[in-house]
Design a protein that fits this description.
Order of helices and strands: HHEEEEEHEEEEEHEE
Largest sheet: 3 strands, antiparallel
Oligomer: single chain
Strand content: 25-35%
Number of helices: 4
Bound molecules: S-adenosylmethionine
Shape: globular
């Protein structure tokens, strides 16, 4: 499958980025600062995503039944070590009223309880009358634009974890961000295994909202094998 999703990192406006920084301060949230090792790995994977979409050591493959596509470590690749960056989860950043989310199978809400000034509500929520205490949530949506992380499926026992981080000033040419959603290897990922993450935070917000139970997927439920033609192991 050719990878048309080639967005290394999320898209925001300076206006929204400033608003996010302000809200992080007001809510006294402290997202950990990405280390130099993490920044270096983000830089490397961003370059690969920009160039070819999917780095060579990964495979995007259609799964049986209604599961759609999934991301696998190539059967001939080296293991991915625990703690390595998989990639930033990229997409379009926007704001939406907290209790009125528009459903997207590809969206995160990395931050809630946001308060907006009058002119900000007019911009992000033009249909509603201004209400100073209405809460908004930050939405990171990869429905229309994103990268291969949007194809990573859900597991209750994942080998990938999600971290909300701050991208500090750096000399690598990476744009600063008050909040970035980054996928890391939670444990060693072995060749052929599927990359899987848990979509659920504290609440049962993803599958609960969809009203379905996820298929019990584990890193070795479907394993890729083969040299020339890559197939699932039987
Ligand atoms: C972020 S996408 C993952 C990529 C998706 N398979 C695709 O081809 O676009 C999330 C969607 O994938 C499917 N999915 C992911 N994990 C699943 C699981 N464990 N059981 C059932 N469906 C799953 C669901 O349709 C879900 O809404």
């Amino acid at each position: 499958m050719s990878m048309k999703f080639k967005l290394p990192r999320h898209v925001s406006s300076d206006y929204l980025t400033r608003l996010i920084s302000r809200e992080i301060k007001r809510q006294e949230l402290a997202f950990p600062k990405a280390s130099l090792k993490t920044l270096t790995e983000i830089k490397e994977i961003s370059n690969a995503i920009e160039k070819m979409g999917l780095p060579k050591y990964l495979v995007c493959k259609k799964l049986p039944s209604k599961l759609g596509f999934g991301i696998f470590l190539h059967p001939q690749a080296k293991p991915i070590l625990r703690g390595s960056v998989i990639a930033p989860y990229s997409g379009i950043l926007s704001l939406e009223p907290e209790n009125d989310p528009e459903d997207s199978d590809y969206a995160f809400a990395p931050m809630g309880e946001m308060l907006l000034h009058k002119e900000e509500q007019a911009l992000f929520d033009p249909k509603r009358k201004f209400h100073s205490r209405r809460h908004y949530a930050l939405k990171l949506d990869a429905a229309k634009n994103g990268n291969f992380t949007r194809f990573i499926n859900h597991s209750d026992e994942p080998n990938v974890r999600i971290e909300y981080m701050r991208i500090p000033k750096n000399s690598l040419g990476l744009a600063v961000a008050p909040l970035e959603v980054i996928y890391f290897a939670k444990k060693t990922i072995h060749p052929g295994e599927q990359l899987l993450v848990s979509y659920e935070g504290d609440e049962n917000s993803y599958w609960g909202a969809m009203g379905i139970k996820p298929y019990p997927l584990f890193p070795k439920t479907f394993v890729l094998q083969g040299k020339s033609k890559i197939e699932f192991r039987r």
